């Protein structure tokens, strides 16, 4: 029987010593009521919360879990590397091995720099774009997330207008909007952040239009600016290369994170020779950026990406997940909008402007052991089996039934209402 006594007690303690009890995307206030805040175990496809409830986890740590939590090959290299050297006065030779491995896999890139979070990589991309020709204006797709730095965090607290002074926003996938934004930048265009596909929260996803991608490349070239693809979220779930290989467009810089160490903290910025001199001009570093253990994990993750059928597997599981949910929804009289790549599924309900159906459904599924998000894209991992899918559908079938029964009494989430009003 699902219970959250321990989770509630931990929340009370957290409220005393952590501002707001939790912060950023880890604050479950945005999730449906009762979603667990604390977890004690993650293995394969499954996550266990502080009360011992087990979930099939479709969030995968918001991305990093690509191959399965605690993948044995990665766990082995991590524990072996821990006995040698990790964080120290300098990098281990693994940094060269890893840079060679990444450059060997990412077609547009001639070099790599390593860091910890996705936001480190997008910050470096921004600095390199500006260092490249000493220009200032950077184009961002409206609502695209690149990290929680003042120049991109989605909430206004702590941000001043000057932090955003040199950004120009355009609508994703719209070549004309992009062309207009470039015109607005005049002779001061430093770079274009293009986003691999549209994966904004609370919104249907859209795949990149090849014409949009080619326009971004052409405009960057015409204005001697750098084109950036932020693959922090999508990396290795669309391709074993940069995601824009799928539309035949090569950026100058690509940002990587999340999956790179299958959960070990490591991210990367990849670049081509055109951007190399600018990359040498900026000063960027971090105490943990050169640690060897996450690099060992990344080298092993890349090997598994190259040598296994993980991508074909997560694509197949993703297709089955999408088809199964559609079928169940229809049989209970609901319509779903399932958009974007099947390996990064977004599941929204039709006719659900305040998301009460989505929230009600995810809450009902959570209480039956399936962890889904009603507003953020989800992530497939390669440990998923047919048994996981069967268990998922058993829970989601009951969740749809529950939703149908309670449909008329559902209310929108108060947190969400407050946010949408703000
Ligand atoms: N870019 C994208 C596209 C992301 O999805 C994220 C994180 N969700 C980031 C950058 C920032 O990564 P991190 O949270 O590791 O700093």
Strand content: 5-15%
CATH superfamily of the largest domain: Type I PLP-dependent aspartate aminotransferase-like (Major domain)
**Alpha-carbon distance between the termini?**
37 Å
Broad CATH class of the largest domain: Alpha Beta
Low-confidence stretches: none
The CATH topology of the largest domain corresponds to: Aspartate Aminotransferase, domain 2
Structural class: alpha/beta
Order of helices and strands: HEEEHHEHEEHEHEEEHHHEEHEHH
CATH architecture assignment of the largest domain: 3-Layer(aba) Sandwich
Summarize the biggest pleated sheet: 7 strands, mixed
Strand segment count: 13
What small molecules are bound in this structure?
4'-deoxy-4'-aminopyridoxal-5'-phosphate
Which whole number gives the mean pLDDT?
97
Strands of the widest sheet, in order across it, are 4-10-9-8-7-5-6
Written description of the protein model:
The protein is α/β, with parallel strands linked by helices. The chain folds into two domains: 169 residues, Alpha-Beta Complex (Aspartate Aminotransferase, domain 1); 236 residues, 3-Layer(aba) Sandwich (Aspartate Aminotransferase, domain 2). Helix content is 38%, strand content 13%. The protein is built from twelve helices and 13 strands. Strands 4-10-9-8-7-5-6 form a seven-stranded mixed beta sheet, sandwiched between helices. A four-stranded mixed beta sheet has the order 1-2-3-13. β7, α6 and β8 form a beta-alpha-beta unit. α10 packs across α11. The longest helix has 22 residues. The protein is globular, with a radius of gyration of 22 Å. It starts with a helix and ends with a helix. The model has no long low-confidence stretch (mean pLDDT 97). 4'-deoxy-4'-aminopyridoxal-5'-phosphate (PMP) binds next to α4.
């Amino acid at each position: 029987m699902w219970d959250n006594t321990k989770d509630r007690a931990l929340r009370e303690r957290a409220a005393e010593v952590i501002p707001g009890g939790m912060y950023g995307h880890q604050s479950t206030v945005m999730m449906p009521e009762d979603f667990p805040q604390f977890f004690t175990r993650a293995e394969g496809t499954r996550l266990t919360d502080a009360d011992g409830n087990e979930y099939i986890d479709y969030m995968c740590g918001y991305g990093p879990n690509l191959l399965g939590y605690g993948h044995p090959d990665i766990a082995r290299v991590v524990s072996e590397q821990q006995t040698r050297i990790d964080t120290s006065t300098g990098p281990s030779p693994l940094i060269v091995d890893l840079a060679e491995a990444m450059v060997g896999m990412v077609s547009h890139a001639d070099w790599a720099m390593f860091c910890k979070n996705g936001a480190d990589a997008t910050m470096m991309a921004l600095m390199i774009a500006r260092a490249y020709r000493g220009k200032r204006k950077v184009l961002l797709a409206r609502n695209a997330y690149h990290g929680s730095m003042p120049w991109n965090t989605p909430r206004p607290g702590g941000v001043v207008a000057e932090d955003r002074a040199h950004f120009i926003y355009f609508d994703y996938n719209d070549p004309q909007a992009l062309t207009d934004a470039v015109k607005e930048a005049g002779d001061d265009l430093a770079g274009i952040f293009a986003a691999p596909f549209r994966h904004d929260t609370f919104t249907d996803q859209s795949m990149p239009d090849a014409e949009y991608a080619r326009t971004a490349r052409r405009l960057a070239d015409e204005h001697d600016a750098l084109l950036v693809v932020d693959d922090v979220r999508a990396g290795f779930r669309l391709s074993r290369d940069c995601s824009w290989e799928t539309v035949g467009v090569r950026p100058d810089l690509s940002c990587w994170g999340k999956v790179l160490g299958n959960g070990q903290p490591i991210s990367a910025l990849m670049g081509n020779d055109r951007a190399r001199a600018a990359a040498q001009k900026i000063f960027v570093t971090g105490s943990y950026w050169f640690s060897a253990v996450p690099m060992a994990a990344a080298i092993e993750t890349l090997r598994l990406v190259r040598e296994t059928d993980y991508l074909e597997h997560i694509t197949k599981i993703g297709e089955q997940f999408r088809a199964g949910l559609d079928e169940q929804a229809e049989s209970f009289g609901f319509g779903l909008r399932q958009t974007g790549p099947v390996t990064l599924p977004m599941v929204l309900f039709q006719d659900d402007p305040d998301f009460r159906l989505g929230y009600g459904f995810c809450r009902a599924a959570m209480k039956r052991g399936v962890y889904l998000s009603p507003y953020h894209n989800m992530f497939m991992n390669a440990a998923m089996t047919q048994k996981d899918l069967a268990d998922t559908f058993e829970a989601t079938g009951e969740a749809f039934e529950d939703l149908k029964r309670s449909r008329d009494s559902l209310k929108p989430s108060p947190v969400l209402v407050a946010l949408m009003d703000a």
